[in-house]
């Protein structure tokens, strides 16, 4: 434990900062010409920290300026971790000049920030307002502030008072190689330049508010002093540069004098006094270098010099001697003696094996150094030069560059994979992607939208356009197109890699002496160095950086041994198995099972005997379970402590705290730190879980404790490791999950009726964790930090940022009782991300289960999945009394609410559903709520509730709930006391307002009345139900239910006395919906109505209901036989329905319907006759089709095998003529007329049947169709029948005889027949028929 605690403040992690988006470009001309030779200086960088950057109650808290030089330009950026600075980036370009390394210096005065710049031909001074002078109040309450560079374009940068040309006598010998500049106490600007001929030239500008001229002073030793100092002439050394050529300069003002420290090419350090213009001190640095043999002959081209001053140690000098293969840092202290004499006291010498030093900085206690190794990898280390006797450098874990190749799964889309890699945190900066995009487009067009979403669209469009333009074929296989996608996306990705690598080039280091904040200055951005937590350091450190066994206790030694085993496991896990493990966690599979699969793969592919090495190391661990407990305890972020409050802090402090670490840079920085911690610890837990599974395999071979420790490992440690792995995997996921851009009006609408949190109008964050920190987490974290400490005036970077990262991770930790993160996602409409969050924690997290179900219901509601949302809301109700979020949602602090929190929860959710506009969900959820509470409060609510409106509301909920849950018996038998009519009204309103087939409220109301023996009302309900079914549900199912309804209504009316067997039906056109609140006397224009509105009603008796029943039954028969008729059958009248039935051959139903409604049967007989005609002349196909409609009618049973469909149709017609007689044989006449009109010979049975009924009419029909022979035969037979021969075939009861009265014959028809025969027949036929007829006439017929 002591080892873990001591490492926490020693190791740092590199995290990328943000890149400014706006630039001021200023050109400066010093009136000089370019020097011959085109000398170029290396790029450099530096930073300036405000004096009050570590003070909380200050405008400049956590505020600094950093710059970088490249060729003839200087780029200056002002950044703040508390507020977003506007116009904070400026680029100065010096024509025909190159900026010297270290040629930028920034100092602050009471009223100004002064920027001093040295080029190889000129010096410049920029005078900018101090931030404290830009605001009237020291307290900053705005989220955005103007930078000091806002008005830089208005300055006269080329004014002679603020710039000067370096004198030509120095310039003739070449350009200065190094420089240093400062502001004196008198306000003068001094520029110390290393002369190429040796010595130092100081150029001085007068104070900005005092007129004066430029002065030049040259500091150089005489030749005599050179000989006395033991200098060797350059000709003897073999080079052309002087021995006192200055390589590095540093300046410090002490006792109203400026001391210039110069580290020269001859390895000597000289201190010059500007006031006395004399060298006060000279020291040979090789004296502090062990075994310096042969080094003195070499020129020290890479020597560096840095100064550090503190009130406790005074002025310290850090000297880096660039000795081949073994550079050395020497720390010296300047000591003043009597008579203005000075000496150097050696403090420490620190060896370094690195080759190329880029930069180093010196603080009052540490040396920070930046190298680039042979592989061009950035290396940063630091060391305490006072108390580190072993010379052990501390490691800084620099963020590795993005992968050179992107692995794309077989089932993944290349475009989505590359976009995810490009725009995930900790990989690429926006500026690198923008530059790569501009090059990829091969154009200079400016990208206007630099937001992450806009940039992603631009990238997608550019790559897809390039891909489409290169396609020459019109058809591709899926695999070919995938290969094209990979090719073009990898090309763009390589462009991004190149620019990211260029922007990641390290240029310098800076460490604030006020806050201790360390930053790595790169070419394109700034990397902040954050303290690394102890457990992360153990996992990331190389073995040589861990403590030795002799220096640590037993437990710590076991921890270190265990971590070494974890490093071996990590190296043995292949990338493919690491991907499988990651995918298993994403798919919510068991981590333990996934670890076993990885272990199996390791055992099968252990070609390097890694498992044996691990086993050997495990045997050296005395108490592995205790070591694992230490690691698990360090990584577990679960806490029960309540959030702090800053109520005891003063007003000014609270205002400053409201802005602390609130800028977009700080938001990105803190959340990247959490992401980095989560990624590191997820790997840690993965390897630990694999190692634990390996322990189980080894068993007693490595466990000294035996079975007890194995049991503890299996039952306690492995489940805890699995839980931690899932938790950190979740943190990593949300830290990389991008937030969606949502309009503010959508967010406002979402927050109207739920518990809401404060929203900030800040910049759109990139990830959901940044969104949470920006809107909710930062305020809580800062309050927590300052509630636990006494003073809050000093902002120490290591302490503050570690606490912020730790507390943010605890707020995000899923096992902690707080539920602020999901609540923030819900409030900001991040429903997709929230749904994914709930999905990931659902199977294993046992905290806030109900709250998560409620949030998932919110997501479903936003996606339009109402039923799923309702299910989630119902599941969350069981946890209302247990979870803080749900209790806060229900307002359980109120005494009345506390007594029934679940009902209050349902009330809240019902309001939400009402506002969303989902009445059907309101009804269902109300049903659930009432059902759960009905056993406790239904009698009390319905009978003793003094509020009538609330009483009706409760009654309505009770009815709906019991109906929806199919508890109809309880609903029907419930004693409603004096609320009987209200119940009926509620059910009626529900029945009339909801879908008929989905809900059964009519049937419920029917049962309600039947139980109470109110049969007439029950019949009325079912008749209304049937009427609505006919109008609204024109389907077979609807017609079937309509028939059942009418039958039930008939049954009800038959159960009561005949005088009461009637119901009331509103007449057609009388169902007028009146406007609510309308006057009964005046119309809509305000005038008196001519007559009162009267509502007309119809009284329906049993006969009327029977007619409706038969009509509906015929409709159902029609639809059953011919389904396409369903759309028109439901609204057809009786005559229309008869026609439809005849068309499909349902003659029995047509005749029954016609007789019920007293309709003429002629259409039925004509329709059947026409079908007989069609069958008579139709083929085999028509015969087969006829059997379907013939079977639907009642056929005569004929015991003959030769019976055909045509015969059956004629028999059916004959049976109808016999069954339904008509006056004067009207039906026969229509049938014969139909047959003759189609030229069909009359069947004998039809002629015989009609002769018995009306022979004269048959004669007239034959004459009408010119059937003269048949007519003549009929007349002769008729005459014979009248005379007594066959009179029974003509329906003549009494034939003609001597005693009978005279008989009547159709003389007119007979005369017409004679006339027709005379015109058309032969003479013999005419004579025969005439003789016969005349004989009859003579007999006086």
From TrEMBL:
<dbReference type="InterPro" id="IPR056535">
    <property type="entry name" value="TPR_NUP160_M"/>
</dbReference>
<keyword id="KW-0813">Transport</keyword>
<dbReference type="Pfam" id="PF23347">
    <property type="entry name" value="TPR_Nup160_C"/>
</dbReference>
<dbReference type="InterPro" id="IPR056536">
    <property type="entry name" value="TPR_NUP160_C"/>
</dbReference>
<feature type="domain" description="NUP160 middle TPR">
    <location>
        <begin position="941"/>
        <end position="1055"/>
    </location>
</feature>
<dbReference type="Pfam" id="PF23354">
    <property type="entry name" value="TPR_NUP160_120_M"/>
</dbReference>
<dbReference type="GO" id="GO:0017056">
    <property type="term" value="F:structural constituent of nuclear pore"/>
</dbReference>
<dbReference type="Pfam" id="PF23345">
    <property type="entry name" value="NUP160_helical"/>
</dbReference>
<dbReference type="InterPro" id="IPR056547">
    <property type="entry name" value="NUP160_helical"/>
</dbReference>
<dbReference type="InterPro" id="IPR059141">
    <property type="entry name" value="Beta-prop_Nup120_160"/>
</dbReference>
<protein>
    <submittedName>
        <fullName>Nucleoporin 160</fullName>
    </submittedName>
</protein>
<keyword id="KW-0539">Nucleus</keyword>
<feature type="domain" description="Nucleoporin Nup120/160 beta-propeller">
    <location>
        <begin position="63"/>
        <end position="535"/>
    </location>
</feature>
<feature type="domain" description="NUP160 middle TPR">
    <location>
        <begin position="813"/>
        <end position="940"/>
    </location>
</feature>
<dbReference type="InterPro" id="IPR021717">
    <property type="entry name" value="Nucleoporin_Nup160"/>
</dbReference>
<feature type="domain" description="NUP160 C-terminal TPR">
    <location>
        <begin position="1101"/>
        <end position="1325"/>
    </location>
</feature>
<dbReference type="GO" id="GO:0005643">
    <property type="term" value="C:nuclear pore"/>
</dbReference>
<feature type="domain" description="NUP160 helical">
    <location>
        <begin position="555"/>
        <end position="772"/>
    </location>
</feature>
<dbReference type="Pfam" id="PF11715">
    <property type="entry name" value="Beta-prop_Nup120_160"/>
</dbReference>
């Amino acid at each position: 434990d002591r080892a873990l605690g001591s490492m926490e403040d020693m190791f740092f992690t590199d995290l990328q900062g943000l890149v400014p988006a706006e630039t001021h470009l200023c050109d400066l001309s010093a009136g000089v010409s370019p020097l011959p030779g085109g000398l170029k200086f290396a790029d450099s960088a530096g930073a300036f920290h405000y004096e009050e950057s570590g003070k909380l109650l200050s405008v400049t808290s956590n505020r600094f300026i950093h710059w970088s030089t490249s060729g003839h330009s200087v780029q200056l950026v002002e950044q703040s971790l508390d507020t977003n600075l506007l116009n904070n980036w400026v680029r100065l370009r010096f024509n025909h000049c190159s900026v010297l390394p270290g040629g930028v210096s920034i100092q602050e005065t009471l009223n100004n920030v002064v920027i001093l710049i040295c080029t190889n031909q000129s010096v410049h001074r920029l005078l900018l307002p101090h931030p404290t002078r830009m605001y009237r109040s020291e307290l900053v309450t705005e989220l955005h502030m103007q930078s000091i560079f806002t008005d830089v374009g208005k300055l006269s940068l080329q004014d002679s008072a603020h710039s000067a040309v370096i004198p030509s006598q120095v310039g003739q010998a070449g350009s200065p190689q190094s420089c240093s500049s400062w502001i004196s106490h008198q306000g003068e600007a001094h520029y110390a330049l290393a002369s190429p001929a040796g010595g130092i030239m100081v150029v001085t500008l007068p104070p900005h508010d005092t007129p004066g001229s430029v002065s030049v002073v040259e500091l150089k030793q005489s030749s005599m002093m050179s000989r006395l100092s033991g200098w060797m002439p350059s000709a003897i050394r073999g080079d052309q540069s002087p021995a006192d050529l200055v390589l590095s300069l540093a300046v410090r003002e002490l006792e109203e004098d400026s001391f210039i420290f110069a580290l020269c090419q001859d390895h000597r350090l000289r201190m010059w006094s500007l006031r006395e213009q004399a060298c006060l001190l000279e020291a040979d640095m090789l004296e502090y270098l062990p075994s310096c043999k042969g080094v003195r002959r070499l020129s020290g081209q890479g020597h560096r010099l840095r100064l550090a001053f503190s009130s406790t140690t005074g002025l310290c000098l850090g000297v880096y001697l660039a000795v081949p293969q073994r550079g050395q840092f020497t720390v010296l202290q300047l000591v003043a003696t009597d008579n203005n004499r000075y000496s150097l006291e050696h403090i420490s010498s620190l060896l370094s094996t690195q080759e190329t030093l880029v930069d180093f900085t010196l603080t009052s206690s540490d040396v920070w150094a930046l190298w680039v190794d042979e592989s061009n990898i950035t290396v940063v280390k630091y060391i305490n030069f006072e108390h580190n006797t072993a010379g052990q450098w501390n490691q800084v874990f620099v963020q590795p560059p993005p992968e050179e190749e992107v692995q794309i799964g077989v089932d993944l889309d290349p475009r989505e994979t590359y976009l995810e890699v490009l725009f995930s945190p900790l990989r690429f900066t926006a500026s690198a992607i923008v530059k790569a995009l501009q090059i990829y487009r091969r154009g200079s067009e400016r990208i206007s939208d630099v937001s992450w979403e806009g940039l992603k669209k631009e990238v997608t469009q550019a790559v897809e356009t390039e891909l489409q333009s290169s396609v020459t074929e019109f058809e591709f296989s899926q695999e070919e197109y995938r290969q094209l996608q990979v090719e073009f996306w990898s090309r763009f990705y390589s462009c991004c890699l190149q620019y990211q690598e260029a922007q990641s080039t390290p240029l310098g280091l800076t460490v604030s002496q006020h806050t201790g904040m360390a930053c790595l200055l790169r070419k394109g951005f700034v990397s902040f160095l954050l303290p690394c937590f102890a457990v992360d350091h153990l996992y990331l450190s190389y073995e040589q950086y861990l403590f030795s066994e002799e220096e640590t206790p037993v437990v710590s030694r076991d921890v270190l041994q265990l971590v070494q085993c974890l490093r071996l496991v990590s190296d043995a896990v292949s990338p493919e198995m690491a991907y499988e493990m990651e995918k298993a966690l994403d798919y919510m599979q068991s981590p333990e099972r996934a670890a076993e699969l990885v272990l199996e793969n390791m055992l099968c592919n252990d070609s390097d005997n890694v498992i044996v090495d691990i086993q050997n190391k495990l045997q050296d661990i005395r108490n592995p379970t205790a070591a694992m407990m230490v690691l698990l305890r360090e990584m577990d972020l679960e806490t029960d402590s309540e959030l702090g409050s800053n109520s005891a802090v003063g007003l000014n402090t609270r205002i400053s705290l409201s802005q602390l670490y609130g800028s977009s840079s700080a938001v990105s920085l803190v959340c990247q730190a959490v992401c980095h911690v989560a990624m590191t610890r997820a790997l840690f837990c993965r390897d630990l879980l694999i190692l634990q599974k390996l322990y189980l395999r080894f068993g007693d071979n490595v466990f000294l404790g035996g079975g007890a420790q194995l049991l503890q490992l299996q039952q306690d440690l492995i489940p805890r490791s699995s839980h931690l792995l899932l938790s950190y995997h979740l943190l990593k996921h949300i830290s990389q999950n991008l937030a969606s851009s949502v309009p503010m009006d959508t967010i406002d609408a979402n927050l109207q009726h739920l518990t809401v949190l404060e929203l900030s109008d800040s910049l759109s964050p990139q990830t959901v964790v940044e969104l949470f920190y920006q809107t909710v987490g930062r305020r809580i974290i800062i309050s927590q930090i300052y509630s636990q400490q006494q003073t809050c005036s000093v902002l120490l970077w290591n302490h503050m940022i570690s606490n912020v990262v730790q507390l943010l991770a605890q707020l995000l930790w899923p096992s902690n009782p707080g539920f602020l993160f999901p609540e923030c996602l819900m409030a900001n409409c991040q429903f997709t991300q929230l749904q994914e969050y709930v999905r990931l924690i659902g199977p294993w997290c046992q905290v806030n289960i109900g709250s998560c179900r409620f949030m998932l219901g919110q997501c479903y509601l936003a996606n339009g999945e109402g039923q799923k949302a309702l299910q989630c809301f119902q599941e969350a109700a069981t946890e209302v009394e247990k979870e803080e979020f749900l209790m806060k949602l229900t307002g359980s602090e109120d005494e009345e609410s506390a007594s029934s929190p679940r009902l209050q929860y349902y009330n809240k959710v019902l309001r939400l559903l009402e506002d969303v506009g989902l009445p059907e969900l309101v009804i269902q959820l109300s049903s659930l709520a009432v059902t759960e509470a009905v056993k406790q409060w239904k009698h009390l609510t319905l009978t003793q509730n003094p509020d009538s409106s609330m009483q009706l509301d409760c009654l309505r909920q009770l009815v709906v709930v019991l109906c929806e849950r199919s508890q109809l018996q309880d609903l029907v038998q419930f004693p409603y006391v004096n609320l009987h009519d209200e119940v009926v009204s509620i059910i009626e309103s529900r029945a009339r307002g909801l879908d008929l087939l989905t809900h059964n409220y009519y049937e419920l109301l029917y049962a309600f009345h039947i139980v109470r023996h109110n049969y007439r009302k029950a019949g009325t309900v079912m008749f209304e139900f049937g009427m609505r079914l006919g109008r609204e549900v024109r389907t077979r199912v609807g017609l079937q239910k309509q028939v059942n309804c009418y039958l039930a209504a008939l049954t009800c009316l038959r159960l009561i006395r005949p005088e009461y067997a009637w119901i009331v039906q509103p007449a057609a056109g009388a169902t007028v919906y009146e406007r609510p609140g309308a006057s009964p006397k005046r119309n809509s224009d305000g005038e008196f109505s001519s007559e009162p509105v009267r509502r007309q009603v119809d009284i329906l008796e049993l006969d009327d209901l029977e007619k409706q029943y038969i009509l509906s039954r015929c409709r159902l028969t029609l639809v059953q036989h011919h389904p396409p008729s369903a759309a028109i059958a439901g609204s057809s009248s009786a005559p229309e329905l008869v026609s439809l039935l005849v068309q499909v051959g349902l003659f029995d139903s047509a005749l029954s319907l016609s007789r019920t409604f007293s309709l003429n049967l002629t259409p039925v007989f004509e329709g059947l006759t026409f079908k007989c005609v069609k069958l008579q002349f139709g083929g085999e196909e028509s015969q087969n089709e006829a059997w379907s409609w013939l079977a639907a009618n009642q056929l005569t049973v004929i015991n003959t095998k030769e019976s055909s469909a045509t015969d059956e149709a004629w028999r059916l017609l004959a049976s109808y003529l016999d069954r339904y007689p008509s006056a004067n044989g009207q039906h026969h006449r229509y049938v014969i007329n139909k047959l003759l009109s189609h030229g069909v010979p009359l069947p004998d049975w039809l002629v015989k049947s009609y002769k018995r009924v009306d022979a004269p009419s048959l004669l007239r029909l034959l004459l009408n169709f010119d059937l003269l022979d048949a007519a003549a035969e009929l007349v002769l037979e008729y005459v014979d029948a009248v005379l007594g021969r066959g009179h029974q075939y003509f329906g003549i009861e009494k034939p003609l005889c001597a005693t009978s009265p005279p008989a009547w014959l159709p003389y007119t028809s007979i005369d017409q027949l004679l006339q027709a025969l005379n015109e058309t027949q032969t003479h013999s036929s005419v004579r025969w028929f005439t003789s016969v007829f005349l004989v009859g006439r003579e007999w006086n017929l």
